[in-house]
Amino acid sequence: MSVLLETSLGDIVIDLDVQNCPRTCENFLKLCKVYYYNLNAFFNVSKDFLAQAGDPTASGTGGESIWSLIASRTSNSRKARVPRYFVPEILPKLKHRNKGTVSMAVAPGVEGGERGGCGSQFFITLADNIEYLDGKHAAFAHVVEGLDTLDMMNEVYVDQEGRPFKDIRIRHVVILDDPFPDPPDLHVIQPPSSPTRPPDNSTRIAEDEDALATLPEEEEEEIRRQKAAQASALTLEMVGDLPFANVRPPENVLFVCKLNPVTRDEDLELIFSRFGTIMSCQVIRDKKTGDSLQYAFIEFDKREEAEQAYFKMQNVLVDDRRIWARAHGEIARSPSHGGRPAGGFAGREDLEATQKYRMSGGDSQRGGYGMVFDLKITFTKRKRASGQGPPRS
């Protein structure tokens, strides 16, 4: 009577001793039949000792016998009468003499509570003559094919608790021969043909993941830029320069960075005014020291003017510094801009527009968003542009 375990390291064929351990073999075979072991991880691997599996939670405390599992799926009354474990079949003549011996792990009893016994957890020995396990755990089978898989399992890297850093999982179980009739109320639920998520939601290296794989240089650079932009936005939020990290300005606002610290508002306004009417221009400064943070926001009257400024002023020298501009909207993602990086506020493409900072009055009628800073000059210049404010002197 045999079972094939298809693991992430290779196949293992187990031959069961149904004559000497009928109840243990029946429990193991029926758990295999209901796909209980599919995607289970070998959560405890000790070099030259054993590899343990059979716990769906991969914690070492889970698992139950097939009879307890059936009762839990039928009625609460039957579940109360069926214990979690069954009495282990520990025979003196069945020893852990050879590598590849398969045993059911015997759980200790809890004082004043449930008695111990065998559930679903099992282990496979990875060396010969492990006499320490004799008489303590129920040997019931041995590996007849796949000893090379056990050798690979014996060499994996594990943490201080014995859990492999890279998951070793039972991908599928095939029953080659089963002499036992199915217990009553045994329902076989066919699992997905290609399971994608392990039952314990492991955060370790996946069994099909290459830990040494590298991305192309372009993709790695793009990921680094995105992470740097996210960190910068979060820093600006923490110091109070942004109301929140995911804010973005309206489409008629140009974000300019890498400025020379000596560049003033008037300088930028004079340089960028050739592209259209500027509603506001402000170099962002430290609230305490007043020093330039080397980036600014320039609000144009029209979106088209901001587009033109973006294309013309990208990487242009201003006060001996090559500035970098960002414009929100489709222009920065359009292929017509000569392959420049995609736009967005502060280089972020994943930011969502928010109505939270919409201006009141005339600006709300235009449907734009307010600036991320609070400026009196913004309203003054808007009034001048609309003819409501006093003329410039």
Protein described:
With 393 residues, this protein is of the alpha+beta class. It has two domains: 2-175, Cyclophilin-like (Cyclophilin); 217-386, RRM (RNA recognition motif) domain (Alpha-Beta Plaits, 2-Layer Sandwich). It is built from nine helices and 14 strands. The protein has helices at 22-33, 66-74, 76-81, 147-154, 217-238, 265-272, 303-313, 362-366, 376-386, and strands at 2-7, 11-16, 44-46, 50-53, 101-107, 117-125, 138-145, 170-175, 253-257, 278-285, 292-300, 317-318, 321-322, 324-327. The chain is elongated and about 95 Å long. The protein starts with a strand and ends in a 7-residue tail after the last helix.
Total number of domains:
2
* Overall morphology: elongated
> Tell me, what is the CATH class of the largest domain?
Mainly Beta
Give the strand content: 15-25%
Rg is 34 Å
Tally of individual helices: 9
Largest sheet: 8 strands, antiparallel
CATH fold field value of the largest domain: Cyclophilin
- Average pLDDT for all residues: 78
